[in-house]
Amino acid sequence: MSTSSFLPIAPHDPPRNAIAAAIVRFYDTHREELDAARQFVMEHQKEFIIGGVIVLLIGLAIVAPTALAYFLKAIGFAIHGVVEGSRAAAYQSAYLGGHIVKGSWFALSQSFAMGGTCISALPWPVTVLGVVLIVVGITVLVTAAK
């Protein structure tokens, strides 16, 4: 595989920035190893797809609580209760009134936002790990699917 097919840079056109130049140098220097790795992936495509799905699901499981916490915050569930003037407050006022049924989605959402019975958002290093696992899982799947 030529460098020009690896990067959208014409062979006669020098890379315009240091990052592109570094990528081209890395690929040119490690072409044989990269081709061998690509061949290995193709020979074990089924295993890589299964592994990619597993890594992706683990990443999603790690990121989901934090994503849910931010979503609930965005619609008006906060650590001190439902935020006045929010979508959650409008829904509560229009459909629920003052009676919130125990175990309902509204009660569970508020419990989660307040750090109650549900898992709350995870510390940022754990969330970053989840995002990295998602990226790795997607990368493995895309590589194995080629």
From TrEMBL:
It comes from the Eukaryota. Coiled coil: none annotated. GO terms for cellular component: membrane. InterPro entries: IFI6/IFI27-like, IFI6/IFI27-like_sf. It is found in: Membrane. It is a multi-pass membrane protein. It holds the Pfam family Ifi-6-16. Keywords: Membrane, Transmembrane, Transmembrane helix. The chain crosses the membrane at residues 48-72, 124-145. Belongs to the IFI6/IFI27 family. This is Uncharacterized protein. It comes from Exidia glandulosa HHB12029. The lineage of its organism: Eukaryota, Fungi, Dikarya, Basidiomycota, Agaricomycotina.
